[in-house]
């Protein structure tokens, strides 16, 4: 869950879930996603429904503005603790009854926190959708908040963090977001020491108060994709959440500022066989804003997969790394960051940094070529469309589009928007928004003394 140091998975989330078996569902996207979507307000909840050709399977994705950045300064862990209590039983049934109900139906419901949101995920068969919606309403509205489960959850979170702190990727990512985002920015992580102290001192009454304040329909958005009838679903949702009110809108956050000078930070970790390198900056860009798409396409040509320049040069040609890439992240709800991330053996770190820097400076100065742009456009659009071929991928895309404050028509227009990008726009975005001389370089692992 996230501002718990942008925990747990690359500043990601500790997933709290109860899972049964549900077959993976594939559904070819319709020619127009927008015209087939039904969107309505149900008791204050923004409900978005897309019926697809897949039979029997339904996928649910949702968000609510109760992420880690909503935790008060008095305790950074309250959002994680509130989310963690959702599957520990409700006032009507204990956690074992919840697990049995879902397991018998082969259904799944899970919750996790990110920096800006409580994330909701569920999957079930069409016949079990009323049950899942009813249970979802119970879990969100009336957790049991049992003291014994709360004590267990606190130990679980502390244990998850202790394990994460042994991972070089986690430590590098935590150092990076704390270096490029200022205090008060949703994407800035909490230090491990602060988080552990917050978990330890948190009380159940504080968690209940956080839940009462932040949970409600005001900011809840639910996307349902698959074999679903929008009218029937609206009735079930209305029944499950009838009388629910409250919640709190996410306050606007100040954008991250620009770094004024190159910074390097070493996170020394003993007895590690690899070093995680992260090199980048805050972009001050939110996904969907002008230049954001052009920068993403240019970045994909530079560092996406085996065809990107970084893998082709630093890995394949020079053999200096296990893997390396470049990408934009953390920019759905607020402005995000741009980074190179790779792993190096300690004795190859110096050469790896030098090679990576050379490629970065060349790319920033000269941009990408016309051929790279054409090739990247095809792959970029193809990957996007492939993501729409499953109910989960489609639901994620719809939810992310809306959370970026983009119109649903953006989904249908995405391919045209990418193909319309010019070489000048892409290379211009790279030079305008990225500044290698002001980037932050993080190295986490067993760093050779000579390198230090």
Succession of helices and strands: EHEEEHHEEHHHHHEHEEHHEEHHHHHE
Q: How much β-strand is present in the residues?
A: 15-25%
Number of distinct helices: 16
What is the average per-residue confidence, as pLDDT, rounded to a whole number? Answer: 92
Per CATH, the class of the largest domain reads: Alpha Beta
**Structural domains: how many:** 2
Distance between the termini: 32 Å
- Rg measurement, Å: 23 Å
- Helix/strand-derived category reads alpha+beta
Shape: globular
Tell me the layout of helices and strands:
Blueprint: E1 16-19, H1 33-36, E2 37-42, E3 45-51, E4 57-64, H2 78-84, H3 95-105, E5 108-113, E6 118-125, H4 129-141, H5 147-164, H6 168-180, H7 192-201, H8 204-214, E7 221-226, H9 230-240, E8 263-268, E9 275-282, H10 292-303, H11 309-317, E10 323-329, E11 337-344, H12 349-366, H13 370-387, H14 391-403, H15 409-419, H16 423-433, E12 440-445
Parallel strand pairs: 3-7, 8-12
Antiparallel strand pairs: 1-5, 2-3, 4-6, 4-7, 5-6, 9-11, 9-12, 10-11
Helix pairs in contact: 2-8, 4-9, 5-7, 10-13, 10-16, 11-12, 13-15
Walk me through this protein's architecture.
This protein has 16 helices and 12 strands. With 452 residues, it is of the alpha+beta class. The chain has 2 domains: 16-240, Metalloenzyme, LuxS/M16 peptidase-like (Cytochrome Bc1 Complex, Chain A, domain 1), CATH 3.30.830; 263-445, Metalloenzyme, LuxS/M16 peptidase-like (Cytochrome Bc1 Complex, Chain A, domain 1), CATH 3.30.830. The protein has a 7-stranded mixed beta sheet with strand order 1-5-6-4-7-3-2, sandwiched between helices. Strands 8-12-9-11-10 form a 5-stranded mixed beta sheet, sandwiched between helices. β2 and β3 (45-51) form a beta hairpin. The two termini are 32 Å apart. Residues 1-30 have low confidence and may be disordered.
């Amino acid at each position: 869950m996230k501002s718990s140091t942008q925990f747990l998975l690359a500043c990601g989330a500790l997933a709290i879930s109860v899972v049964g078996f549900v077959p993976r569902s594939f559904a070819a996207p319709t020619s127009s996603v927008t015209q087939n979507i039904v969107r309505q307000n149900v008791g204050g909840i923004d409900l978005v429904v897309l019926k697809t050709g897949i039979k029997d399977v339904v996928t649910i994705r949702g968000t609510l503005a109760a992420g880690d950045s909503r935790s008060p300064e008095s305790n950074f862990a309250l959002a994680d603790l509130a989310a963690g209590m959702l599957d520990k039983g409700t006032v009507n049934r204990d956690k074992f009854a919840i697990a049995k109900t879902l397991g018998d139906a082969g259904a799944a419901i899970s919750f996790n926190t990110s920096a800006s949101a409580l994330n909701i995920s569920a999957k079930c068969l069409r016949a079990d959708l009323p049950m899942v919606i009813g249970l979802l309403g119970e879990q969100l509205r009336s957790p049991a908040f049992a003291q014994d489960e709360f004590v267990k959850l606190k130990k679980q979170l502390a244990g998850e963090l202790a394990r994460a702190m042994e991972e070089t990727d986690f430590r590098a990512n935590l150092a990076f977001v704390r270096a490029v985002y200022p205090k008060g920015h949703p994407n800035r992580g909490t230090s491990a020491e602060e988080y552990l102290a917050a978990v330890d001192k948190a009380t159940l009454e504080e968690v209940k108060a956080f839940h009462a304040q932040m949970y409600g329909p005001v900011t809840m958005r639910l996307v349902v994709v698959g074999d679903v009838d929008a009218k029937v679903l609206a009735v079930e949702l209305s029944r499950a959440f009838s009388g629910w009110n409250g919640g709190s809108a996410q306050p606007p956050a100040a954008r991250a500022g620009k770094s004024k000078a190159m910074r390097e930070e070493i996170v020394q970790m003993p007895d590690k066989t690899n070093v995680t390198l992260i090199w980048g900056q805050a972009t001050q860009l939110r996904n969907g804003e002008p230049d954001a798409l052009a920068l993403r396409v240019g970045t994909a040509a530079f560092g996406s997969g085996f065809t990107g320049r970084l893998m082709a040069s630093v890995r394949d040609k020079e053999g200096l790394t296990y893997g390396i890439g470049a990408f934009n992240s953390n920019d759905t709800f607020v402005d995000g960051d741009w980074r190179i991330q790779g792993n190096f053996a300690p004795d190859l770190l110096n050469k790896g940094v030098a090679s990576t820097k050379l490629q970065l400076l060349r790319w920033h100065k000269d941009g990408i070529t016309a051929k790279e742009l054409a090739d990247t456009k095809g792959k970029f659009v193809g990957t996007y469309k492939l993501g729409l071929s499953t109910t989960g991928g489609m639901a994620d895309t719809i939810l992310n589009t809306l959370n970026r404050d983009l119109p649903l028509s953006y989904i249908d227009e995405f391919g045209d928007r990418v193909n319309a990008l010019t070489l000048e726009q892409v290379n211009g975005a790279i030079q305008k928004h990225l500044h290698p001389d002001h980037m932050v370089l993080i190295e986490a692992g067993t760093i050779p003394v000579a390198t230090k």
